[in-house]
Amino acid sequence: MIPDNTRQLMEELKTHPVVEVLGVVQASGAGGVKAGPTGDWILKFSFEAWKHSAGEVQNRTLAICKNVSKEELRAAMGQIKPFDVIRIHARVAEQNSSGSPQGLLVSLVGKDNSDTSFNRLALKLQEPVTFEDTRFGTFALNRRLNWYEAKTSWGSTRVSLILYTDDLGEIKETLSSAYLLWDFQKSWSEQIYNCAATKLIGIKNKSWLGEDEAELNAEQFKDKIELDSISVKSDGKFAFWFNDVDLFWGHSIKVSGSLSGGATDANIEG
Looking at residue 16, what DSSP letter applies? Predict the structure, then answer.
């Protein structure tokens, strides 16, 4: 179901005139969300920078949406790729109820390499962005997901450490959260694994046993799951992600919490 604020915004955008827009597609590319039980979807993508046909370059995000069928969504996702410079016709409102520039797609004209500055920006956006940390090594920006990531170890296990920010100004605080987790790995590991078992062992034994599969106890459950990545935020919130090793038929396990409140929840994801 389309949220009321999204529905309101799309109705608002319909009142604006159609303009031609040239822009650089953000790293996330195009995607879609289910619009409701009718089978329709909402196509979504954003421009990193853009301009009207006769206007100045806007170095701020312009979010574009359109109500589409599943087939139209699939076709659009094939045509709108990360870092493409494309031209579209859309109803654009720089001032609107969402508080940031929004556009309702009318038609996709296609790729357009006529603007040198946008071509340069598209190339620049694909250059690696990294920084070095004395403890965890090299972090690289994942532009598609807007986070920094490094490979490191939690105990004897190699994991991805994800800093939930793309803002270098927040890095120091986010790293401080990671340091506090790593400084007390033993106690945090105990909390995390106990939380996963406590919250999910009942669900496993009640609803996710395979044919002829015996029920697991908590220790067997904890021995089976495999830690894959750890994400942290500047406010001390964290998530530990595990491969389920077929406990839940290929779904991931997420244990979340905070430095101040401990491990509080575990869910089956994906």
Answer: S
Residue at which a domain ends, from 123, 148, 167:
123
Tens digit of pLDDT for each residue in 65-95? Answer: 999 999 999 999 999 999 999 999 999 999 9
pTM, two decimals, is 0.83
N-term to C-term CA, the chain? 20
Q: What percentage of the chain carries pLDDT values higher than 90?
A: 86
**Residues forming a β-bridge with 111:** 86
Domain co-membership, 150 together with 171: yes
pLDDT over 70 (residue 32): yes
In the prediction, which pLDDT does 55 show?
83
- Split into its structural domains, the chain has a count of 2
- Percent composition of the chain: helix, strand, coil (DSSP 3-state, to 5): 30, 40, 35
Residues 92 and 162 in one domain: no
Half-sphere CA count of 51, side-chain side, radius 13 A: 9
Other Cβ atoms within 10 Å of 52 Cβ, number? 15
Closest to 196 in 3D by CA, of 262, 253, 258, 261: 253
